[in-house]
Write the structure tokens for this entry.
Amino acid sequence: MSSNIMILMLSVSTFLGALGLIALLWGLKTGQFDDQSKFIDGARYDNEEELRDAAMMEEKKKSQKEKKENYRPAD
Amino acid sequence: MAKVKCTHCNLIFDESAMIIEEVNGDICYFCCHGCQGVYHLLRNEGLDTFYAKLGGATLTPPTNVPRDDLERFDLDGFRKKYVKIHHDGSNEINLIIEGIHCSACVWLNEKVLHKTDGIIEATINYTNNKAKIIWDNETIGLSQIIQTIRSIGYDAFPYDPALQEERATKTRRDYYARILVAVFGMMNIMWIAVAQYAGYFTGIEQRFKDILNVAEFVLATPVLFYSGSVFFRGAYYGYKNRIVNMDTLVATGATLAYIYSIYAMISKHGEVYFDSVVMIITFVLVGKYLEVLSKKHAVDTLDLLTSTIPTEVMVVHNGIKSLVAVENIAIGDIIEVRAGEKIVIDGIITDGAGSFDESSLTGESIPLYKQEGDAILSGSICLDSVIRYRATKDASNSLLHSIVTLLEESVTKKPKIEQLANSISGYFSVVILTIAIATFIGWYLYDNNFEKALIISISVIVIACPCALGLATPMSTLVGISVAAKRGILFKEATFLENMAKSTMVAIDKTGTITEGKPSVVNAITHQEFDYNLLYSLVISSNHPISQGIKIFLEEQNNNLHELKLKEMQTLQAKGIMAKYDTHSIAGGNDAFMKELGIKTTLSSKHSLFFFAIDGVLVASFELSDKLRIGAKEALLTLKSLGLKVVMLTGDHALSANAIAKEAGIDNVYHSLLPQDKAKLIDDFHAKGERVIMVGDGINDSIALAKADIAIAMGSGADIAINVSDVVLLDEKPQKIAEAYRISKRTYQAIKENLSFSIVYNIIAVPLAVMGFVYPLVSALSMSLSSLIVVGNSIRIKRIKFNKGNKNE
């Protein structure tokens, strides 16, 4: 067995594992695991309507931001 | 009569009692107008898919009681206290939503809030029912948001997350991330280590070994410096305070093993110990994480208490009512209190009379009747009438406020004896570090070979087994905690097991702790035969503890009780209840009430009495008293036999306190105590050199609980009491107090065994290492072996036996 193959196997598997770990850490940081029950129920309420709802909230946030930016010069 | 489900709340009622309505061809049943209103609202909003999501779960029907407290949400004092204003001008508030039963409720609330104009973000946590709402104050007011939540049948209370919650959530997340990294590193290093060990015994080429070493190094580095940084921080604070603690040992042990391994990796001879590095970090970290987890849980309950304290009171000035912030109340102001409201300012009643629930002050559940000229204390709740009273103290001097302040103080100043617990391992690590340095100097002077001296001195530390010593305490306490948890005893922190084992005294609250906290019938006399259904129908109409006691008694005695339709029901404060049935007039109440009605009673007792009369003739008498919990006496005996002093602290008066104490076999009784008095007594015990375990359940015990070395709370007790406690008894059996103490004793014994084992082991191994006789094989084997022995010894705690009767558990 060549040592190169061993290096390759070790590094590839560690790298793949690390990717999973990073994804998990990202999920944790963005608060996706804060509420276990909701996390589990998430799949039940996942449909087109929810997507529209989320899009609507994004829209609201954006318009709020714009409003504030336009408002600023006045004061 | 057919029973049908309410279309909205899914609760089942008689069909005859329902509101029947046809909506789009479907027949809907509603139990009340509240449910009907919400149903139509949801339909109009297009949210009726809620019912499909709800499935079979039931809801609390919305109350139709109009609440006129909405204006207070827009007051400046309120906004200042709860609303956070972001730099972009949006407002943020944290609310606790009441009435959430299932995930469909969460969905509905979020949906409705999302649809509301001006709300930018709304997230609700299902686990603790807490909501975070961000909104634009120019478009919508907070009162409108609360109104929206109420309109769909829920209610919302603000709370201040800055208290502790945010911090607790953050630490929890932080620890979770660290553990993920540590476990990832450990699992991967383990399978590489398998190859290493196999190679060690069967022969491995150095070039393969190098690759494995480097791979382990790559994995161990983030574990040590990221996951392990908590130990470095702990060690640094310890160093600043001149304390050698557990963290110092873990940090030095892991770092030195790490450095040695790097040296072995580069110099290409000797074994690496990266697996030991990650193992010790991971195990000790998981132990710490479990503590953080239980703390977070406690914080969630604390917010409930503070959120119920009113921020404004109704002041009557020259006949004009206005809401004034509590801080602005001056002595002499006239305050109006309505039924159900909590008193926040001490005072004297000037107008009106009513019952007051003082259970949060004295622990007694029986309401007190107060009239003009009587003093009322903050913290009590007005139960049934509108009264006006004159403030005799301002907010900051009132009892409720001083309790809260005292509580905050005592929580932060809680006596710490955990440093003591770590002192053995602390001294030990100092000794080992000194020996290692001495070894290095000795070998260097003797041999004049820097490299050899360094390796030997490091091997001294490595063989001194940071694993066994590092695991000695956490392993035992982990097993101890899990054994306790299985028996319904929750220790919030591992160190509390040690503290408890060192206690010398137990102080026990009476009501709700060793007694059941509600009166039950101890003696019943029937003077004449009568229809028990009459009495039953009368007592179920009242929430007074005495009535409840009679009700439970009747239900135990008779099987087929049913409610009769009584007319002209009248409740007379602190006296009794009267009603009419057909042509008969019936009355139930105390001695004074019977006298008033001209009925002669013969019974007199130190307990509470309840008489029942039909048409002016006495037919039955009941004697009620608070009963000892089952097993309380045995539990106290066990505690005594284990060498603890037992005292009772109670807010109740001398007579009933002594009676209960005699029954329970307690010799030292302190009675008629206010919350501060209990706390002062704990201080007195401390001054006498006692280490005190306090057991309690109410708000009135909370300061004393916070002051005690170990506080035990009953699981059904007040949230605040549970929060300040170190140990929570879930099923409230007094035996559990004794069990908790025994588990802590057993755990402490295991800790001592583990420590002495690792010390004996070190006494043998360290000299060998100092002399330079340590072979890689010996150190690798002894290291794992000593850790295994410590783990095995700790698991033996599980074999602790408890009293008979618990065998099937």
Remarks:
- Residues 35-75 of chain A form one domain.
- The radius of gyration of chain A is 22 Å.
- Residues 10 and 70 of chain A are 55 Å apart (CA to CA).
